[in-house]
Amino acid sequence: MLDLFRRLSKSKIGGLVFILFIAALALGFVAADIKSLGVTGGSATGDTVAKIGSAKIGYAELQQRVQRAFDNARQEKPELTIQQFVQQGGVDQVLAQLTDSIAIEQFAREQGIGVSRKMEDAQIAAAPAFRSLNGSFDQSAYEAFLARQRVSEKQLRADLARDLYLSQVLVPTTGAALAPTTLALPYASMLLEQRTGRAQFVPIAAFRGAAPSDAELTDFYRRNAARYTIPERRVARYALIDRTTYEASAQPSEQEIAEAYKANQAQFAGKETRTISQVIVQTEEAARAMAAKLAAGTPIAEAARAIGLESVTLNDQSRDDYTKASSPAVAAAVFATAEGKVAAPARSGLGWHVVRVDRVSNTATRTLDQVRGELVAQLKTKKAEQGWADAIAKVEDAVNDGATFDEVVAANKLQPVTTAPLLRSGQAADTATQASPELVGVAKSVFSMEAGDDPVVEQLVPDRVAALIKTEQVIAPAPRPLAQIREQVVADFLAERGRAGAQRAAAAIASRINNGAPLAQAVAAAGAPLPSAAAVSGRRGETLQQSRPAPPQLAALFGTRRGKARIVAAPDGSGWYVVTVETVVPGDARSQPPLIESTRAQFAPVLGQEYAQQLAAAARRAVGIDVNAAAVARLKSELIGGNAPAQ
């Protein structure tokens, strides 16, 4: 329903993009991920691209913003190129968004709206990227972020302040839109409008006609040769180097098994792990107070929340792992504490750790006999991989030394295979059978080299199957001979004739009706027997249900005036419908308050969008905007010409 109202409104599509941008800025995205800020590495330098009141946007700043917007777009559409991004208006959109946001910021300042340092602090403190393990603000993480982004705290706060100005100005503007009943009533009533009519089906089958003559068929085949052309094909010769060949003989000796056990003895040794819950506080006094509470029976999560923190559970920690995550002193205290007890508070670089030992787990040392099967499997895999790698290296060395495909195959006792002509997909041209992974890889290789090139060694199945591959023959694209596909060409000829004839007949019927002829008379003049016209009726609201699209006949009924006709294609491609409107009963929503209220709600985003556009336009007029079109054009030219920032 909302799509209808958007089409009926006078809003520009650019306004919707603007509102989405402002929403992203103004509705707290900083708290979700501070890296979304889009801060630049410094103030505007070089050419001035735009002047907005007392502010300027430099060439380098716009270039950086465009690159950042392009990178974000690539996350949604990886195949997007910088050239496409520019040609689709990406530079203009970024510049418009930036100038509008600066204009609104200055406008807000002039109206007495302010942003305090405390408001900026709240945004920074709420960012997950700047929190430590205990959930509090981490100054070191904050400083590391500034260093990575090559931005000062002053510049970061300037962007945050702008976002907060936008939030204060635009959120109330867009959120307060409510359509009056007098505006919503006509549109709500329109949804109740009822219509009846007739839908005359004109099937393609009725106009296929007789079989074509040889001359007609030959001419059709010639005109549509591209439809029957087989793309370029290539014949390949290849020989597989399969890792499974080397697995059967990859049996480790007893000495190798014993050496592997000795080399990995630490892996099989017994060890103790602990599952713990911890809170990190900043002072020893606070740590000892919390430890006393835990010892008295207070749950650790409850004790942490009481001082504004959250407890963290770490599962199955070994002493070495936990030492790396804390400090030797903390780990020593924790691993000296019995299960269910609270460790003595100890300090790491993060603060004082208050730790409860939830579970202690011990595993015994495993003997050679206990791990023999595991070691044998590992050694077999390693020996098979080595044998396979050696075989591949031997084949590659022979090719590099100038040996031919046949010489390499004979010397290494490989089994050569010659394929049927293959398409790029690896399929044979005359079959619909899906190509095997091996043939897909073979085709990829042979389409990257020419007949006469030296053979290459490629992995067809990663870490499993490689192959020696050579392009044997290149077959240029060519249409299949007519004699081989005559039945298909005849069917295509009749289908095209039927489509064209049915469309002409449907258009002629509609024209006669629009000129005043009754439906029956217009159909009688079609020159072919047609099925009886079917009744069609419904409400306009039925055509707007996105979850269940309306039949095209019903949609056409509400796109035609009473007494007139319109043609619409059948959804299955079997013909056309000629739809005529017989009766129109206007709707009246005055007796349906819920529908009116729903319509008013649907209007709210449209009105909010319009209000925001008007506010942005007022801000632009109030502060004044001057865009350097030549500088913008130069940036676009550099990006499209390949001098873009690194992708």
| SSE class | alpha+beta
Shape: extended
- Provide the β-strand percentage band: 15-25%
State the name of the first-level CATH class of the largest domain. Mainly Alpha
Give a count of the beta strands, DSSP E runs of length 2 or more: 17
CATH level 3 topology of the largest domain: Triger factor/SurA peptide-binding fold
Number of domains: 4
What does this protein structure show overall?
This protein is of the alpha+beta class and 647 residues long. The protein has four domains: 2-179 and 607-640, Orthogonal Bundle (Triger factor/SurA peptide-binding fold), CATH 1.10.4030; 194-225 and 486-586, no CATH class; 232-248 and 371-476; 271-363, Chitinase A, domain 3 (Roll). The protein is 49% helix and 17% strand. It is built from 26 helices and 17 strands. The chain has a four-stranded antiparallel sheet. Strands 10-5-12-11 form a four-stranded antiparallel sheet. It has a four-stranded antiparallel sheet with strand order 7-6-9-8. Strand 11 and strand 12 (465-475) form a beta hairpin. Helix 9 crosses helix 25.
